[in-house]
């Protein structure tokens, strides 16, 4: 780990521990309210997601109370209720030292240049009980206290925060039977959605072929029949036959173009020609909002996964261009073990809602069909983050 990464880890650990202390105090104050099963599961789910995010920063979008509330529809009530007293104790035990460390750094930062501004009887104190009465004390003990406490935070915050996160994950871990029951419920629900989506897709393809391509092929056949009859009855009427053949030729090209569009809606040919990275590059290039594409290293993934990723990114960027008012967007694609993750973010106005027909529901249906997961984080005022995870280790 480089020095910059270590500094970031210390900062994340400090923020996590201070947040744990604050939420532990809130847990104690709101304990009667949090004993309601749904609220207990919601509170526990947010802490579990927060702990997992600390242990694995690349696991996905940042935890939100809104996502935790949706997750609280299922889960272990007993584990959530057990977590409340555990968190009340561990949050204070782990977070209070972090608060004292950060607080004394702040005291030293204020006392060193501004000790003289305090009343004589209320001079700031360094190293717990040493009053700052002159510049010599301020310029020696102040930087010393800042350096020692900063070094302590640099060394101690990451492992202490990870220890608390592991306790949280261990207490809130689902049992095998509960995970299986929840998985069955999710698969039952998504199977119905997939069947509906599959039926709708078949009807769309049938409608496109019937109303478009089939109509053009019938017209071509009629023109060719008329041309054949005209040629048989009047071989010298070349101009009339030529016009019919020209119309039939143009109709054939139009029918082929429509067929290509139908095929493209099932599996985009660009994926076969240029691969997933090339296809996504083309999508990003066509987006009306400046978009940065970041593609990590990943092996060949199944064609079905490629198609879902392509359509999900295309739909998400269409939403960005049409609805967000964003000035910039970013698409990140990466693989961890057997999971392919796609994160689309923009700096727009936020407030994306699947119920308003912005295409997010379509993305979710495609992803759930492959046993994947979708998370949409779009608070009012932005930014918006759409995270898609798909299994690719088949």
Give an overview in words.
- A hairpin with a 3-residue loop joins strand 1 (125-126) and strand 2 (130-131).
- This protein is 69% helix and 10% strand.
- The chain is of the alpha+beta class and 394 residues long.
- Helix 10 runs antiparallel to helix 11 (360-369).
- It folds into 3 domains: 3-174, no CATH class; 197-266; 270-391, 2-Layer Sandwich (Heat Shock Protein 90), CATH 3.30.565.
- It has helices spanning 3-29, 31-34, 37-55, 65-71, 77-114, 135-172, 176-233, 238-266, 269-286, 303-324, 360-369, and strands spanning 125-126, 130-131, 291-295, 329-336, 339-346, 373-377, 384-391.
- Strands 3-4-5-7-6 form a 5-stranded mixed beta sheet, with helices on one face. It has a two-stranded antiparallel sheet with strand order 1-2.
């Amino acid at each position: 780990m480089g020095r910059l990464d270590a500094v970031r880890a210390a900062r994340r650990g400090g923020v996590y521990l201070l947040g744990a202390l604050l939420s532990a105090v809130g847990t104690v104050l709101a304990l009667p309210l949090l004993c309601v099963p749904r609220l207990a599961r919601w509170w526990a789910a947010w802490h579990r997601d927060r702990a997992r995010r600390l242990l694995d920063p690349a696991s996905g979008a940042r935890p939100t109370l809104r996502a935790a509330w949706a997750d609280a529809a299922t889960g272990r009530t007993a584990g959530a209720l057990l977590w409340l007293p555990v968190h009340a104790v561990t949050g204070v035990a782990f977070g209070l030292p972090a608060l004292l460390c950060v607080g004394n750094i702040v005291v030293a930062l204020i006392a060193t240049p501004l000790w003289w501004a305090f009343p004589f009887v209320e001079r700031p104190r360094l190293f717990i009980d040493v009053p700052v009465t002159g510049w010599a004390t301020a310029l020696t003990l102040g930087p010393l206290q800042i350096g020692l406490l900063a070094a302590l935070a640099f060394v101690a915050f990451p492992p202490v925060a990870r220890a608390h996160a592991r306790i949280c994950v261990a207490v809130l871990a689902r049992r095998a039977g509960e995970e299986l029951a929840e998985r069955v419920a999710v698969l039952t629900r998504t199977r119905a959605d997939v069947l509906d989506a599959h039926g709708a897709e078949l009807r769309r393809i049938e409608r496109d072929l019937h109303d478009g391509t089939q109509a053009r092929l019938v017209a071509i056949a009629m023109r060719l029949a008329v041309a054949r009859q005209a040629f048989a009855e009047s071989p010298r009427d070349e101009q009339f036959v030529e016009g019919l053949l020209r119309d039939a030729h143009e109709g054939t090209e139009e029918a082929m173009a429509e067929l290509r569009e139908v095929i493209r809606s099932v599996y985009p040919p660009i994926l076969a020609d240029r691969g997933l990275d090339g296809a996504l590059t083309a999508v990003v290039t066509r987006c009306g909002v400046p978009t940065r594409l970041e593609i990590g290293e990943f092996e060949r993934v199944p064609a079905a996964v490629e198609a879902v990723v392509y359509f999900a990114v295309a739909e998400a960027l269409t939403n960005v261009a049409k609805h967000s008012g964003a000035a910039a967007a970013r698409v990140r694609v990466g693989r961890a073990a057997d999971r392919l993750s796609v994160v689309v973010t923009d700096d727009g106005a936020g407030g994306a809602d699947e119920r308003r027909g912005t295409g997010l529901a379509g993305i979710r249906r495609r992803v759930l069909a492959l046993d994947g997961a979708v998370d949409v984080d779009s608070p009012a005022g932005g930014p918006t983050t759409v995270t898609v995870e798909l299994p690719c280790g088949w």
